[in-house]
Amino acid sequence: MRGSGALFSGLALVLAVAACGVRYGLAGGGLPANVRTVAVLPFENQTTSPDVQRDLLDVMRRELQKRLGVRDAAQDRADAVVRGVIDSYDVDVPVGVSANPSQAVSARRRLQVIIDVEIVEQKSGRVLFQRKGMRGEGDYAERGEAEGRKQALQRIVNDIVEGTQSQW
Q1: The pairing of beta strand 80-96 with beta strand 71-72
Q2: Which residues, in sequence order, are CB contacts of 164 under 8 Å at separation 6+?
Q3: How many CA atoms, within 13 angstroms, populate the side-chain half-sphere of residue 76?
Q4: Residue 91, C-beta contacts closer than 8 angstroms, at least 6 positions apart
Q5: CA distance linking residue 156 with residue 127, whole number of Å
Q6: With left for phi above 0 and alpha for psi between -120 and 50, is residue 90 left, alpha or beta?
Q7: pLDDT band of 3, cuts 50, 70, 90
Q8: For 24-68, what is each residue's pLDDT tens digit?
Q9: DSSP codes joined into one string, 84-124
Q10: Contacts (Cβ under 8 Å, ≥6 apart) of 115
Q11: Mean pLDDT value of segment 72-76
């Protein structure tokens, strides 16, 4: 009978919390409940690579919708705006090369992207998320820069989603 007393107490606690009107859910996926739409603006690109801006915009839109449960919207109708700056795009960070020139070992490269990002609620102007100097890295084989860029940008967006979720 001792187990039924604990069960009854736990059930009573759940009912008491529910009666007080306290609601907890995962709607909005880490953003306030009133943020249902987001406009992801093209980041200011301070690098020489036009591809990084386009690729970041694509992965950001796709992943924020999927993982934070928001819809894409035009800037003038969005509940929140995501904006930022691409500070650095370095494709030539060596990872591994062969010390013996007679060996046919291909070089591995590391690509690094550094951005500043913020998510701002439009009505109030409140900053919901902000990080400066976010870094993403991706390793790739010689002449495989696109794959390295894809990995680096995915890591950055993962950090943004996780950071946004952890604040709420």
Answers
A1: unpaired
A2: 29, 30, 31, 68, 119, 128, 129
A3: 0
A4: 49, 109, 111, 145, 148, 149
A5: 19
A6: beta
A7: low
A8: 334 445 789 999 999 999 999 999 999 999 999 999 999 999 999
A9: EEEEEEEEEEEEE--S-TTS--PPEEEEEEEEEEEEEETTT
A10: 43, 56, 84, 85, 86, 87, 134, 136, 156
A11: 97
Q: What is the mean pLDDT of residues 117-145?
A: 94
Please give the structure tokens belonging to residue 5: 């007393």
- In tens, the pLDDT along 80-101 reads 999 999 999 999 776 665 566 6
Residues 6 or more apart in contact with residue 28 via CB below 8 angstroms? 35, 36, 68, 69, 70, 168
As a 3-state breakdown, the chain gives helix, strand, coil percent values, each rounded to 5, of: 35, 35, 30
E-only strand ranges, 16-165: 37-40, 44-45, 71-72, 80-96, 108-121, 127-141
Which residues face 129 on adjacent strands? 119
